[in-house]
Amino acid sequence: MPVGLFRVCLLVITAIVNHPLLFPKENGTIPENTEEIIQKMKEREQSLRLEQLRLEQEIADQEATQKALEKAAVVVEESKEQKVRWDMWTALSMVIFLLIELWRQDFQEGNWQDTGGEEDDMAVLGKAFKGVALPDKAVLASFYEKRILGTTADMARMREMVEGFADDLLEALRSVCNRDADMEVEDCMGVGSMYENWRVRKPFVCDLIVPFAPPEPYCFCCQTWCSGDSFPPDEQGYGTIKVCRADEDVTGCICDKTKLGEDMLCLLHSQVSSTRPSSEMEDLLCFKNTQYLDADQVMKWFQIAVTKAWNRISHKYEFDLSFSLLDSPGALKIKFKSGKSIAFNLTPVVQYENSDVYFISHFPRSSLGADIPSSTHWFLTFAVYERRFIQLVSKTMPANACHVSCLQILSFLHGKQCSLTGPSGLTNYHLKTVLLHLLQARPSQDWAPEKLEARLQDMLKFLEKCLHEKKLYHFFIGNGKVPAELGFPIIFQRAEPLNLFRPFVLRRDIYRKMVDTFHEMLRNMSALINEYTVHIPLAHTNGIRKE
Predict the structure, then answer these.
(1) With a threshold of 0.90, does the pTM exceed it?
(2) 164: pLDDT confidence band, cut at 50, 70 and 90?
């Protein structure tokens, strides 16, 4: 605005200075055309006034625009501050609401826990279950003798028959495979409840694992979640298997990690060995366009190979062999002409280095591998070490120790409860893990046969505590107290403990179902046991017989 006023004043001063009356001509006479000059001056004055009005209007418009811009900027800034404040309050309110909701649900789920008071620990298993007592020793002894021992007497004969047939089948499989191109199959091994003598529910199913290796000159390079590389939390317990050449150093050379120029070659690896056709890797059962072993491809290859092997030896046997379950690729069933059948699982695995830890391609009849991240991720199984640990501690226990009896009874009760209320997230492997922890925590003499009732209650208390805390740690992973006699790999002992209940933390519906099933099992325990118990004389206090 000051600039505009200056321009107006300058025009007025110029007009005055140039006025003819102010500086007349030298003769001092007024020209004859005075009226004409006056008229021109009026017109000039009028034009100057119009120019002044135009300039003032422009200045006013500029000031109005500037004020509007400043006002708009202030409004925008205030709206931003208000929005930020609103977002902060909204986020804070949501956090408070979620915390209240989580606390409410946890309180409802955990209000049955015993919070204090001196109660009879031998008869009560939680605040909400006062009066729920375990049967006495005599009833448990009769139940075990009538129900458990009576149904497991023919397990050894079945194991022997299945193992003999599996060995014959695998030998035929080796003969039909191309040894220069197909995977090399090793001898099978029995794992699980049938080989640890605690399976009680029919039908009896033998679980056999079959290690295999790639043909020469290839080898498997295994990588686990605890080997140093970062794995997401949902991939803990898994690993990957890379198919490499035996003469390839997968860790020492950087040519596979760095893009070399077109005119540069690695002095350790030739171009032929570093670039492999995609079809060659697919023939080695790798995932498309990768070097990582594909579990789905392995199971397809194994099914085809087993079918060819059976066609070669089927004339030797008087029964039929078929795949029994579509969702379990390794599930096989032997069907006799009499109508009887025997089921067993034959699952290919990959050995981890020189240990008895194996990468397993598929979990039969189990939810452990239900949410595998991808077909190139393999779950690690420690079943061989679990079997060895049970055998090791059994050597130091009293005769007819009750540790296997506890697991058999609890497994039977859980199975009967699931048949009544439907399956839950709780599995027999969880029950077995509870037993393994207690075997390490308690001395050998505490597992005498007459202490069956106390040890069974210990298992229920331990499981109740794990369900309440949503934490049941894997027995071997992160356990630095594993006996040295087992030769367990140190890398897994130094790893972070693996919580087997972690999948249920976010899946509250499954967790709720699991807790409800456990509670119902406690309530129905006496009825389930009495259903399979005969009348017992009062003087009958003998211990429990075992195989």
Answers:
(1) no
(2) very high
